[in-house]
C-alpha cells in the first residue's frame, strides 16, 4: 500500500473530530473519501499531512511511519496537497506559486502549463487576481510541481462554474491515467464515482463503509451522503 | 544659508536614512514574516560594531572587520533564533517584548564583560578617507558617500533577493500562509532562522559602518532601534519598500529639521532662543511626521495586503 491510515483519531483542542478512520490507497489507485459536511474528511487529510497530527492510530506512506514528522517532511516523502479553499499564495505570481516549493521530477513547469494552458497565459499575474477556477488549477499545478507520489484533492471543484469543473475533472482523469495515486474528496457523485477505484465513507469521524463505486447503492448513498 | 550647506545636510540626511534602512529592513522582515517584535535588533547592531572594531584592531584591516561584523551578527542572530526566538513565534507580543528586552540586557552585559565599559574606536579605512568637492564648493567626506552607496547596494540586493529568488518567494509565501508553504515541503523553521540571521547581518553591517563615525559602545543600538521602529511604522510593517522610503524620509526630515528649523525661527525670535526652541522642535519633527502619516494612512505608507 502507498498510503495506509489505521484507526487514527484527531482533535481540535479539546474537541475530538476523528474517532477511528481507516483508509488505504494503493499505488496508481484513485480513492474517493466521502461523507456529509462536517464528518471529518478535511480533518482526515490534515491528520495524514501532520497538519493536525493524529493523537492515536498510525499513518504510513510507502511503509514509512509518519508519526512525529513535521508536515514539510511528510510533503517531501511524497504527499502533494491541494487543500480545501485552494490557498494559493495571493501575493505571489502564478509562476512563483508554481516554482516556490517545486521539487525535481517528472512534473515540470512545461508539463503543468500543458495540463492547464490558462496558467501559462496568466503566468505573470498575481494569484489574488485569478478567478476561482484558475486558482484551483494553480493549486493543483503547485502540488504537482512538488512531484508527489500521492495527490490529495480536497473539494477541488467546490463553487466552480460547470465548464471549469469539467476542466478540473478532465485534468484529474488525465493524472489518474498516467498512474498517479489520488485521494479525492468531492461532493458531486456523478463526476467522482467514475474516477474512483474505491470509496471510503466517513460518518461522525469514523470510517463506516468501504467498497468499489459499483457497490455504493442508492440506499447507501441515501444513508451516508444524502442531505 | 548657502546651497552647499543645504546639500551637505541633505547628504547627511540620506546617510542617516540609509543606516536606518539597514536596521529597519531586518526589523520589518522579521515582523512581516514571523510576526515577531524583536527589541534585541539594536543589540545585533552593537555586536556588528564591536566585531568590526575588535577584528579591525587585531588585523589592522577595516575590511576584514567589516566582513567579521556581517558574520558575527549573522551568527549571533542564528544562535539567538535557535535558542530563544523560535520559542516566541506562537506567543503574544507582550511575551516577545519581554523576552527580547531580556536579550538586550544579556547582550549589553555580555559585551561589557568582554570589552569593558570604555568605548572602542574604529578608524575610517584609508581608501575612504578624505573628502570630495560638492557642487557649490563644500567638501564632503568620502566615507559618508560610501555609506550611502553601500546602503543603496544592499537595498538593491534585498530587492533582488526577495523579488527574484526562490528563497524570496518562500519568504513571501510564508508571510501569507505559513502552514501551506510547510505542507508543500518547505521547512519553515529553517527559513525563519535564515531570515532572522539575514536581518541580524544587516543590522551588524550598519553598526560596523556607523562605528567608524561614532564611538563603539554598549547601548549604541537602542537609540537607532527606536528610530528604526518609527521607520517601519511609517513605511508599513512588513514592507521592505516601505522601510526604504520611511528610512529616507526619517533620515532627511530629521537632519534637515535640525538644520533648518533654528534658521526659520531666527526670522521671528532672537537667535539664541531660536537655536534652543528650534533644536527642541526638530527632535520632535519625525514623531509629528509619523502622527500625520498615520492619520492619513493608519497602517503606514505601504501596508501589506494581509494581516
Ligand atoms: N478548526 C477547527 N476547530 C474546531 N473544530 C473544527 C475545526 N475544523 C473542523 N472542525 C470540526 O471537526 C469536524 C470535522 O470537520 P471537517 O473535517 O472539516 O469535515 P468535512 O471536511 O468532512 O466537512 C466538524 O465537526 C467540524 O465542526
Ligand atoms: Mg472539508
From TrEMBL, chain A:
- Could you tell me which PROSITE patterns the record lists for this protein? ABC_TRANSPORTER_1, ABC_TRANSPORTER_2
The record ties this protein, via SMART domains, to:
AAA
Cross-referenced InterPro entries, in alphabetical order?
Answer: AAA+_ATPase (IPR003593), ABC_transporter-like_ATP-bd (IPR003439), ABC_transporter-like_CS (IPR017871), BCAA_Transport_ATP-bd_LivF (IPR052156), P-loop_NTPase (IPR027417)
Q: Which residues form the ABC transporter domain?
A: 3-227
Annotated TM spans: none
Query: What Pfam family does this protein match (any one)?
Result: ABC_tran
The identity of this protein, by name, is: Branched-chain amino acid transport system ATP-binding protein
Automatic annotation (TrEMBL), chain B:
Protein localization? Cell membrane
Q: Where are the transmembrane segments?
A: 12-32, 39-56, 62-85, 97-122, 142-162, 190-213, 225-253, 274-296
Q: Which UniProt keywords apply?
A: Amino-acid transport, Cell membrane, Membrane, Transmembrane, Transmembrane helix, Transport
Q: How does it sit in the membrane?
A: Multi-pass membrane protein
Q: Superkingdom, according to UniProt?
A: Bacteria
Family from the record: Belongs to the binding-protein-dependent transport system permease family. LivHM subfamily.
Query: What is the designated name of this protein?
Result: Branched-chain amino acid transport system permease protein
Q: Which organism is it from?
A: Pseudorhizobium tarimense
Amino acid at each position: 500500500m502507498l498510503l495506509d491510515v489505521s484507526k487514527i483519531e484527531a482533535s481540535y483542542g479539546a474537541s475530538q473530530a476523528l474517532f477511528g478512520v481507516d483508509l488505504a490507497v494503493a499505488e496508481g489507485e484513485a480513492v474517493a473519501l466521502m461523507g456529509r459536511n462536517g464528518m471529518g474528511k478535511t480533518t482526515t487529510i490534515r491528520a495524514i499531512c501532520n497538519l493536525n497530527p493524529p493523537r492515536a492510530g498510525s499513518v504510513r506512506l510507502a511503509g514509512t511511519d509518519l508519526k512525529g514528522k513535521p508536515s514539510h517532511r511528510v510533503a517531501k516523502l511524497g504527499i502533494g496537497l491541494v487543500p480545501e479553499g485552494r490557498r494559493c499564495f495571493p501575493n505571489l505570481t502564478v509562476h512563483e506559486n508554481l516554482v516556490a516549493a517545486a521539487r525535481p521530477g517528472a512534473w515540470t513547469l512545461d508539463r503543468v502549463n500543458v495540463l492547464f494552458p490558462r496558467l501559462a497565459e496568466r503566468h505573470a499575474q498575481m494569484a489574488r487576481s485569478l478567478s476561482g477556477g484558475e486558482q484551483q488549477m494553480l493549486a493543483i499545478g503547485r502540488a504537482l510541481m512538488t512531484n508527489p507520489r500521492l495527490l490529495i484533492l480536497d473539494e477541488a471543484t467546490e463553487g466552480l462554474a460547470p465548464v471549469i469543473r469539467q476542466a478540473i475533472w478532465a485534468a484529474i482523469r488525465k493524472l489518474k491515467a498516467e498512474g498517479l495515486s489520488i485521494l479525492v474528496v468531492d461532493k458531486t457523485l456523478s463526476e467522482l464515482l467514475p474516477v474512483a477505484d474505491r470509496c471510503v465513507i466517513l460518518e461522525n469521524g469514523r470510517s463506516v463503509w468501504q467498497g468499489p463505486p459499483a457497490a455504493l447503492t442508492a440506499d447507501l448513498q441515501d444513508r451516508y451522503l444524502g442531505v | 544659508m548657502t546651497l552647499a550647506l543645504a546639500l551637505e545636510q541633505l547628504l547627511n540626511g540620506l546617510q542617516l536614512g540609509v543606516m536606518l534602512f539597514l536596521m529597519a529592513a531586518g526589523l520589518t522582515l522579521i515582523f512581516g514574516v514571523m510576526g515577531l517584535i524583536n527589541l534585541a535588533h539594536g543589540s545585533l547592531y552593537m555586536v556588528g560594531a564591536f566585531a568590526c572594531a575588535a577584528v579591525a584592531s587585531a588585523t589592522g584591516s577595516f575590511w576584514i572587520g567589516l566582513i567579521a561584523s556581517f558574520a558575527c551578527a549573522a551568527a549571533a542572530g542564528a544562535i539567538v533564533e535557535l535558542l530563544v526566538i523560535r520559542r516566541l513565534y506562537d506567543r503574544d507580543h507582550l511575551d516577545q517584548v519581554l523576552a527580547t528586552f531580556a536579550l538586550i540586557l544579556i547582550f549589553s552585559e555580555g559585551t561589557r564583560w568582554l570589552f569593558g565599559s570604555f568605548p572602542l574606536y574604529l578608524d575610517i579605512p584609508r581608501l575612504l578617507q578624505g573628502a570630495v568637492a560638492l557642487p557649490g564648493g563644500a567638501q564632503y567626506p568620502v566615507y559618508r558617500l560610501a555609506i550611502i552607496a553601500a546602503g543603496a547596494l544592499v537595498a538593491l540586493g534585498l530587492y533582488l533577493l526577495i523579488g527574484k529568488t526562490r528563497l524570496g518567494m518562500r519568504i513571501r509565501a510564508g508571510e501569507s500562509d505559513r502552514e501551506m508553504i510547510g505542507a508543500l515541503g518547505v521547512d519553515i523553521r529553517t527559513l525563519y532562522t535564515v531570515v532572522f540571521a539575514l536581518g541580524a547581518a544587516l543590522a551588524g553591517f550598519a553598526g560596523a559602518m556607523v562605528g567608524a563615525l561614532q564611538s563603539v559602545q554598549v547601548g549604541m543600538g537602542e537609540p537607532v532601534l527606536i528610530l528604526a521602529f518609527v521607520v517601519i511604522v511609517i513605511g508599513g510593517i512588513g514592507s521592505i519598500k516601505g522601510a526604504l522610503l520611511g528610512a529616507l524620509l526619517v533620515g532627511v526630515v530629521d537632519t534637515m529639521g535640525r538644520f533648518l528649523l533654528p534658521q526659520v525661527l531666527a526670522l521671528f525670535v532672537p537667535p539664541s532662543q531660536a537655536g534652543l526652541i528650534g533644536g527642541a522642535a526638530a527632535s520632535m519633527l519625525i514623531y509629528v511626521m509619523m502622527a500625520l502619516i498615520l492619520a492619513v494612512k493608519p497602517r503606514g505608507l505601504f501596508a501589506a495586503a494581509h494581516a
